[in-house]
Amino acid sequence: MVLKNRVYFSKKIVKNGYENESCCIVQWGEKELVLFSKDSTYALYTAKQQGLYVKYLVTIFPERKDSWMFHHPCIELTKLQAKSLGISHITRRSKGDKEKELEDLRKVLETVKDEVEGIVSGGVESTYQKSRIDKVCKELNLKSFSPLWHRNPEELLKEEVNSGFEIIISSVSTAGLDKNWLGRKIDMKAIEELKELHRKHGFHLAFEGGDAESLVLDCPIFKNRIKILDSKTVWDDKTSSGYLIVKKAILVEK
Asked: Crossing angle, helix 153-162 and helix 38-49, to 10 degrees?
């Protein structure tokens, strides 16, 4: 879904006479997407179902909370998610300055571009995200693929839940979503409530545009699930927005 922000790279390899794909994943997110969120994780799930071998996971850590490109809430949990996935994890810090952030992403991808062939991203409707991923891909001569692009938001949410994804909301910043949604699990009941609030307030049902952010605690491709032991919520009454802070979390057996 943290990372909707994960980018995947693939390169064809031949093993035992069969042609497979070797993938490098970059977790990332702008205000519209979340690191290891439901959509980026589901894009990874989709890629693996298609036979791709995931080689790297790259996380960009922004220094500012209002980063234009990269997600901030719960970003520290990407370490547990990468461990649960069993994927090599590459990290880099970014000052979070608008447009300059893209250069930070490009520098990371330059270190692995000779090992990979393309990128798979989890964007649904964010032209801001897709255009910038496409730009980096063109500069580095990599392919860009967005398997969830223009999917119906309601169908996508239900598909993720029905596929066994355990998703919680990690931040909200739109009319209709109050502090009671922070940390809440997205299940079928929640989806029906979100649909009604979407009709009243007009936010994007899949949270594109930064209306909310999400975090995946478990899914079919995680070897272990993430258990949150201690957390707190931060809420700003003036902006009617807030986010979840996870103080302690561990990996547990399913």
From this structure: 70
Q: Which residues pair with 194 in a beta bridge?
A: none
- Quote the mean pLDDT of the chain: 80
Please name the residue that has the structure tokens 């409707």.
125
For CA atoms 130, 135, 140, 145, give the dihedral sign.
positive
User: Within the chain, what is the greatest distance between any pair of CA atoms?
Assistant: 61
At residue 5, the pLDDT reads 40
For residue range 221-249, what is the model confidence (pLDDT) as tens digits?
Answer: 999 999 999 999 999 999 999 999 999 99
Distance, CA of 117 to chain centre: 21
**Which domains does the chain show, CATH number per domain?**
6-252 (3.40.50.620)
In angstroms, the Cα distances linking 228 to 77, 248, 250 are: 10, 6, 7
Count of residues in the chain: 254
Judge residue 134's burial from the number of C-beta atoms within 10 Å of its C-beta, 0-12 exposed, 13-18 middle, 19 or more buried.
middle
pTM tops 0.70: yes
